[in-house]
Amino acid sequence: MNRRLLRWVPLVGLFVTVGCNPPPDPNANGLAELPTVSVTVAPVETRPVRRTVATVGTLNGYDQIILAPKVGGRIQRVRADVGDRVSPGEVLLEIDPTDMRNEVDRAKRGLDLELAKLDLPKLVTKEDFKPEAVPAVIRAQASWSNADREYKRLQGTSGATDRELRATETDLKLATANKSVALSEANAGLTAAWLRKDELDNAQQRLADCVLRVPEPTGWMAWSATVGTAATPIRYAVAQRLVSEGMMAQSMPSTESFKLVLDFVLKLRVAVPERYSRDITIGKPAEVRVDAFPDKAFVGQIVRMNPTIDSLNRTFIVEIQIANLDGTLKSGGFARAELLARVDPKVKTVPLAALLSYAGVTKVFVIENNKARAIVVKTGVREKDWAEVIGPIPEGAVVATSGFSQMVDGSPVVVR
User: Fold this and answer.
1) What is the C-alpha to C-alpha distance for residues 113 and 129, in angstroms, rounded to an integer?
2) Nearest 5 degrees, angle CA 197-CA 201-CA 202?
3) Which residues face 363 on adjacent strands?
């Protein structure tokens, strides 16, 4: 036999002997027993949990308007600028009123002339008008009375000729016609006077329109009657000033002058997924947050809901109103909102320290009979100190909040 092969024979025999021997029994000296883990524990608590819908949108003013003067002319003075707070009735700009004052004077003289024709100190209604008191009608009535008296006198005179009778009859007919014309002209004069009055009113209105004022929004009179004009929160904010002094304003097409925003209440319109249409209702609260105040939540209320679903994105529009009396929030800003859907009265929660997450799986260790039992759960609502857990956790259970580095399913534990 080859001497090289003879040198490997003892080593092969040694390997065969070792491989054939069975492994030692670990249970013989207690190596399979799991180590006892010292843990802290906390009870699983049930508490009411608010279910909310998170969404985003843009803040809009309660109302916004673009104002333009009703009459044309050179802008004489601008009294407001961007950022000013203006009240209803406050003057924004003034247009040179010279031409409008001349129109008022002409219309007033025309009305005075018509009233002088009727011998009226002031304009009266048709019901109160007495045309027989008009001087022209009085003269016509007197002429008719004379002609009638002369006609009757000649008829009773035996010596009157046919020519005289025909002449007096003609005079009577002429006087009657003149009387009728005078009455018609008196009534027409009253109508003309009212037309002059309309012209005067229009001219006076155009003169008043030379001053552009802040309009009265809905609710202004009610607020003013309750708390007074100075105390009411209804103020417009000047968002844009589009004119300057010296410009020529036009009435057709109108010259846009100011953009005003009513922002004591803001509106936030957001899109809500269709699946929440049953839970979202008018009157429920909503929390609104903006980037300028990340730690502050503004409380709003749902006031309107679109009754239809948008077939393109399967959402419906909800309008939230937020009080903004101090002007903290800005119209046009981006906002995030959480809408209250419902409140679940009994939801299982555990401390955040009881959650163990690894490789996308979250579990908790329930302590039963001094042993740890791992239960896979899903988490829901999270707050600062606790989290909602969804899974087969028994009522009244106790969960571990520490010792996870040495703990496996079935580990014996001791509560410290």
Assistant:
1) 17
2) 120
3) 356, 376
- pLDDT category at 234 given cuts 50, 70, 90 is confident
- What percent of the chain clears pLDDT 70, i.e. is strictly above it? 89
Query: Global pTM?
Result: 0.66
Q: How far apart are CA 335 and CA 90, in angstroms?
A: 32
The model's pLDDT over 287-300, given as tens digits with 9 standing for 90+, comes to 999 999 999 999 99
Q: Are 122 and 115 in contact, with CB atoms under 8 Å apart?
A: yes
CATH class label, 53-60+263-343: mainly beta
Q: Does the domain made of 37-49+345-415 have the CATH classification 2.40.420.20?
A: yes
Residue-range domain boundaries for the chain: 37-49+345-415, 53-60+263-343, 69-96+211-256, 99-207
**129, exposed or middle or buried, with CB in 10 Å at 0-12, 13-18, 19+?**
middle
Buried b / exposed e over 258-277, threshold 16 CB at 10 Å, is bbbbbbbbbbbebebeeebe
Domain 69-96+211-256 coded CATH 2.40.50.100: yes
What is the full DSSP assignment across 82-132? TT-EE-TT-EEEEE--HHHHHHHHHHHHHHHHHHHHTT-SS---TTT--GG
